[in-house]
Amino acid sequence: MTLLCVPLVARTVEEMVADAAAAAAAGGDLVEIRLDFIQGFRPREHLPLLLRGCPLPALVTYRPSWEGGQYEGDDTTRFETLRLAMELGVDYVDIELKVADKFMSFISGNKPEKCKLIVSSHNYEYTPSCEDLANLVARIQAVGADIVKVATTAKDIVDVSRMFQVMVHCQVPMIGLVMSEKGLMSRVLAPKFGGYLTFGILNAAKTSASGQPTVEELLNIYHIRHIGPDTKVLGLIANPVKQSKSPILHNKCLQSVGYNAVYLPLLGDNLASFLETYSSPDFSGFSCSLPFKVDAVKCCDEHDPVAKSIGAINTIIRRPDGKLVGYNTDYIGAISAIEDGIGGPRSKDAAISPLAGRLIVVAGAGGAGKAIAYGAKEKGARVVVANRTYEKAVSLANAIGGQALRLADLETFRPEEGMILANATSLGMYPNTDGTPISKLLKA
């Protein structure tokens, strides 16, 4: 079972002791005590206080600044502190590969049997090739590590796949993590690929590395205790993506129906590259949002008729034969929400929508705009498409028999009573949460 480790980065011993208790209450399996974060740290006075009352197994790390930590002193003092932690019965000690040989000589092989030695390497710039990662793992194994730890940085979400490939072939226990938001998948899927542990922070203010989720997210949103080798991977690929509530909704649904899968936020840069890299049957389905809904049409082998007509896809399913099938369900959700919002008496004829005959102005001609415009036209509405790039507005308007405007023209567009404005632009979404396609002060 992959362990859930909570890093403790408090500035005082008292706060760190309190955070250790909070980590246990939150459901952590062990804590990482980051000694380099403690101000005025005095090893012989403070280590016993930290370790003897710790409610969880402890990993002690004293990370130097040259490996991304806070410690600025000499190695001898640091080594003496780690050796003292071993003598006090700590469960794990982390030492950097760069000085692992020196540390092994320093302790002269006198490591308590209970204590496991983690030898770590951190790359804060990028994720090396599979070959370079495998060679790095071999070097770490060769110095006598009980557990290999490799942490790299994701420049692109596809970088994480290289870490997964190395992890599943490692012959000793391995911690393999990819930092940054684009590397979140490595942290959540650690149990699927055999990771010895993964890190979950107490809250956003107590992070020790980029891209760490909270303990609550790992346990209550991603249900990490239930992830294993056979777990299917689903997710929302978008850019940006962290604002989405989809993981909360979908993971709750997956749990309720008992389907062995996890749904992740996937911060991507190139949809085609992502789908080509994560082509295993285990990566079995994805939602697509901005800016990939139109790109998804080219990436799919087959399309449902609606998606083909709209020219945008928000759902991709990987069939058992590996082929990707694209669907568009945006128009159903968006149009249903608009119809419900209109309210009022409905026609006795259920086939007639309350949108019939209404004027709807769709701001945006991307994937979402195409879906709304298509759906509104199908319901009998009169459609106006406004877009920053006028040519795209014209193209969509012509396709559905509507009218085209420039987005700026909405400032002077005179609405009629009962008109509907649908914002299908990125304005109003993270990070432009206060943005609108028209002035908030504009009066009808």
TrEMBL record:
Signal peptide: none annotated. Residues 236-316 form the Shikimate dehydrogenase substrate binding N-terminal domain. SUPFAM superfamilies: Aldolase, Aminoacid dehydrogenase-like, N-terminal domain, NAD(P)-binding Rossmann-fold domains. Residues 354-413 form the Quinate/shikimate 5-dehydrogenase/glutamyl-tRNA reductase domain. InterPro entries: Aldolase_TIM, Aminoacid_DH-like_N_sf, DHquinase_I, NAD(P)-bd_dom_sf, Shikimate_DH-bd_N, Shikimate_DH_fam, Shikm_DH/Glu-tRNA_Rdtase. It comes from the Eukaryota. This is Shikimate dehydrogenase. It comes from Urochloa decumbens.
